[in-house]
Description:
GO terms for molecular function: 6-phosphogluconolactonase activity. There is one protein chain. This protein is 23% helix and 18% strand. It is α/β, with parallel strands linked by helices. The protein has a single domain (37-284), classed as Rossmann fold (3-Layer(aba) Sandwich). Helix 1 packs across helix 2 (72-83). The chain is globular and about 50 Å long. It binds 6-phosphogluconic acid.
Amino acid sequence: MCCTVASSPRAWSCWPAARTGAIVADAGTEKRVVISDDAQALATSVARRFIDRVAKQVDRGKTVHICLTGGSMGGAVLRAAAADPRTGGIDWSGVHFWWGDERWVPRDSDERNERQARAALLDGLDLPAENIHAMASSDETLDLDAAATAYADELAQFAPADRSETGPWPGFDICFLGVGPDGHIASLFPDRREIQITDRATAAVRDSPKPPPERISLTRPVINSSKRVWMVLAGADKASALGLALAGASYLSVPAAGAKGRKRTILFVDEAAAAQVPPTLIDRDY
Length: 286
Ligand SMILES: O=C(O)[C@H](O)[C@@H](O)[C@H](O)[C@H](O)COP(=O)(O)O
């Protein structure tokens, strides 16, 4: 049973029996909440769906663009994907990996989202090195602003011919997003200028509320050009952000509230994070 939260809480609804289907209030605004028992079950469930989706697109001969997230749940999902028995049998040569944000630290720092993703999954995949689109690191020649611009330029090289639904960047098949206790996504934090940027693909972030202080982030237009936005959040400290995101809070103060895919927006959560969501609106994925 899935539940759909349309763009306003008044339209909250769910249907008792179906495991699929949705209130089509506005294709891009509905959110679905899928709950797992705990963080490990959540990571396994999301990884299974991730591998399903990649395998389906590869079988169709499609080039696939995946945007990864940092954070503990981002890494947990990738480790679970690495453990999926189907992963080794997929032809990854047409799959490209991007990042929603990156910390401005040296390339070999354990804080790098890229380094964590490589260790969790990417370095075990048979795919061309050029398919891994990492953001620059602080020990290279570029400064923070130039590095953000360079990433926007790289994204532009993979923009689709038909840009009717996206800007000069690829429309990701899946955009993974972790969600902070304050509702931040990528490195777009509440009540800051970066969440309001609409005229470029990336932003240099300074004085980040979450260490380290300097980061590069995709902006909201790029995230919302994704076909699917999958937010993954676990733990009681996320319950408030989830509740606000589902209750129609402004994305300016709760960035997660404004993340939406063109085809699907799913919040994958565990029981602890779902504590403030009315039980009638929860789908139990276990
Ligand atoms: O670089 C980062 O720190 C992440 O991209 C950040 O957006 C993260 O996803 C959230 O802070 C949630 O992190 P957790 O999953 O660890 O709570």
